[in-house]
Design goal:
single chain; mainly alpha; 16 helices
Length: about 400
């Protein structure tokens, strides 16, 4: 089992790099250069290729092997990063992001989405039922570590690391990972084609897998409040005087370290025979309380005119709430991904990869929509009513858990 987990850890770490780049590094750089919250939020529309994973998941499942798909997609990601290094950084006086930059970021997400399908196919087929807890812990932790390195880590280095050097570093990382993936996966006996997929490979057949409808609904709502708040909160701290390097340290590295700790704890609890739905219910209650505290903190900052200077208690409270929410978010994510993979393993083997891609696409959609709309809502309604809405949305998953089928417990 340890060999499987080590292989998955390395691959998922590389997979987390594009997400960290566009969720951690790019929004703060755009905001620091004077872009509005609306323009920063709408930039997340470049995640669109992730929503189309289901379109090519059957192709990845039927044609070639995980070794070929992972190597080709990772090599392509390095090529796109090399092209991004040749572009100038975006400026606030532009009407929006340059077309060439948006096109390359779109291609970056396309390559990362293909890589994600191939890697999830590998994980679903490689892990046995008793390995789901540790396997999903490795998946979540390694992915978030990669996101932290590309987001918070590079953000801390950005004052001394130019735009071209940043993307050249990422390109070299991808090409090295592609070579290592080819060598490591080449030792595994992957057939060129899986068993023939029956007619139930269409959407109707996927939805007939036990527990799919409830899991799909839960995935669409379980991150609504958390993702909207976590996308907006660091930007509002920046508006209240927190520096870009500080945000890179706390919102990037510090918060992700807490998220990794939460994910690790979630895996440990699942291994010790905590039921995944019971764990979800307990942690979602804690997360709701944490979001309530963040909402109160923002109202206080707005009404009192308080600052977030280095020596204030408010600054400590803001950073603590940021880290706590990421810790709880890590717990929630590990338990949820375990439910997803458990549900996909109930499908026929020829449909498991496509089924998991369907669930993963819905999970991403549930995270992408609030993250994209958070800036628009904050600019139109104000950040404080916006946070109140996120708080209400965070209660929905708790209500939905009461309808969960017992076979997913």
């Amino acid at each position: 089992m340890h060999g499987k987990l080590l292989l998955l850890a390395g691959l998922y770490l590389v997979q987390g790099l594009p997400y960290g780049l566009q969720s951690g590094l790019l929004p703060i750089l755009l905001r620091a250069r004077g872009f509005s919250l609306t323009r920063v939020g709408l930039a997340k529309g470049l995640y669109a290729p992730w929503l189309l994973k289901l379109a090519w998941a059957p192709l990845v499942d039927r044609r070639g092997s995980p070794q070929v798909w992972l190597t080709l997609s990772t090599t392509a990601l390095g090529l796109v990063c090399g092209l991004l290094a040749a572009l100038p950084p975006p400026q606030a006086d532009q009407a929006g992001l340059p077309t060439t930059l948006m096109g390359l970021l779109l291609l970056l997400n396309l390559g990362a989405a293909v890589q994600d399908v191939a890697l999830d196919t590998l994980a679903v087929k490689l892990l046995e039922p008793r390995e789901l807890g540790p396997g999903n812990t490795v998946q979540v932790v390694a992915y978030k570590l990669g996101a932290a390195l590309a987001g918070g880590g590079l953000l801390v280095l950005f004052p001394t690391l130019s735009w071209p050097l940043l993307f050249l570093l990422l390109a070299a990382t991808y090409w090295l990972a592609a070579a290592l993936a080819w060598a490591a996966l080449g030792q595994l006996p992957w057939p060129q084609a899986s068993e023939h997929t029956p007619h139930t490979s269409h959407l109707q057949g996927l939805l007939e897998v036990p527990g799919t409808l409830w899991t799909a609904g839960f995935l669409l709502i379980y991150k609504l409040g958390e993702q909207g708040a976590s996308s907006l909160f660091p930007l509002l701290l920046l508006d209240h005087g927190t520096s870009v390097p500080d945000l890179g340290l706390w919102s990037g590295l510090g918060a992700v370290a807490c998220s990794i700790a939460g994910s690790s704890l979630g895996g440990t609890l699942l291994v010790r025979h905590w039921q995944q739905l019971s764990l979800l219910r307990f942690v979602l209650q804690l997360r709701l309380g944490g979001l309530a505290c963040q909402t109160v903190l923002l109202f206080h900052l707005h009404t009192s005119g308080a600052s977030l200077d280095a020596d204030t208690v408010l600054r400590g409270a803001a950073l603590l709430s940021l880290c706590l929410q990421h810790f709880l978010g890590g717990l929630v994510t590990t338990a949820t991904f375990t439910v997803m993979m458990h549900c996909s393993q109930l499908a026929p083997k020829a449909l498991q990869a496509t089924h998991y891609s369907l669930l993963a696409t819905l999970e991403l959609l549930g995270k992408l929509l609030p993250g994209t709309l958070a800036g628009v809502m904050a600019d139109s309604l104000g950040p404080h009513p916006c946070f109140a809405i996120f708080l209400i949305l965070s209660a929905l998953p708790l209500l939905d858990l009461g309808l969960a089928p017992s076979l997913l417990a």
